[in-house]
Amino acid sequence: MKRLIKSLLLVSLSALICVLLLLAFLVFNNNCCQKTIDVEALQHSHNASVQWLIQNEEKLITEHNPILWEMIAKTAELTHNSTLQNLFSRYQRQFFSFYRTHPFGFLLNGYNKANFLTTDLSVFPYYNLFFIYGFTCDKALADFDIVQAQRDINFCSKHFSIAPACKTHQIMGFMYLKNTTCENPQWVADNLEILANDIKGQLFYDFRLVDVYLQRVMILYENDNSNLVNPQWLVNIIAAQNIDGGWDDFQPIVALSNKKYLGVGAKSIYIKTIRSTFHATVQGAYLTALALKDLDL
Fold first, then answer.
1. Mean pLDDT per segment of 10 residues, for the chain of length 297 residues?
2. Which pTM was predicted?
3. Is 137 left (phi over 0), alpha (psi -120 to 50) or beta?
């Protein structure tokens, strides 16, 4: 019996060591060994992602995610892409009335004041409320408990420790605050620095090439923290780009059939087909535009 227990312990220990070695290899592979940015590959990746957005215009035009549409507008501005600007303008015109009394009308309609007091704010995710406070400085919204909680730099570890995008959402809220006068500028800057370094740490250890991976790198560029970006991360993102030019919130690992794969998502393991998504691809297009701009290209 003792021999059996000893054998089981040795097998368990061996398995644990193998898992730890595998994780160490994956972390190493995530961060090594690209030292410079391949400009040609970056430009090609950006062009392919923009082409995906344009080719899928009819499907995307009814996607109501104002933050993503703001990213499309910013991408068009950064790259002077008139076709992409036309895509954003079409969405803006088509749903102008929808956003007249919508909190995110502040973003999509040129930060014009809108009467959103009749909007049921309880339908928005917690991070959207922080965004809205950030770009409106609304005093009533500032008193919401969930908004006050997100002002705490340790908010994610206290309340959403396993939510992969919590840090990036929180830093986005602070980035909106940076552009307004809601809070003390130095306090905002100090929190942005801490959060940016937290996100750098997440990118170092979290090797899963899913939506939030792109989001983290994108945020570092948008917050003027390109110095924290490891060029290898851009290589990984470009390598994960689908053949159609888009990205998915899914990293395939093992092919199970012609179309089905076993892989990882942001929160779990899945069996699914590879399909580029609006959310991931817009972030990829904006990220590559920011990276090219950072290189003065």
1. 74 77 80 89 98 96 93 96 96 86 80 57 90 88 94 94 93 94 93 97 93 97 96 96 94 84 82 92 98 88
2. 0.92
3. left
Cα separation, 151 vs 176, in Å, equals 12
Domain coordinates in residue numbering, the chain: 37-294
Number of H helices, E strands in the chain: 16, 3
Neighbours of 185 (CB within 10 A): 11
The strand pairing partners of 252, in sequence order, are 263
Quote the DSSP letter at residue 33. Answer: S
Buried b / exposed e along 115-134 (16+ C-beta atoms within 10 A):
ebeebebeebebbbbbbbbb
Residue 134 CA to its chain's centroid (Å):
18
pLDDT at position 149 = 97
Distance CA 55, CA 281 (A): 12
Q: Strand pairing partners for 254?
A: 262
Residue 201 CA to its chain's centroid (Å):
15
Q: Would you say how long the chain is, in residues? A: 297
| Tokens of residue 199, six digits | 């996100």
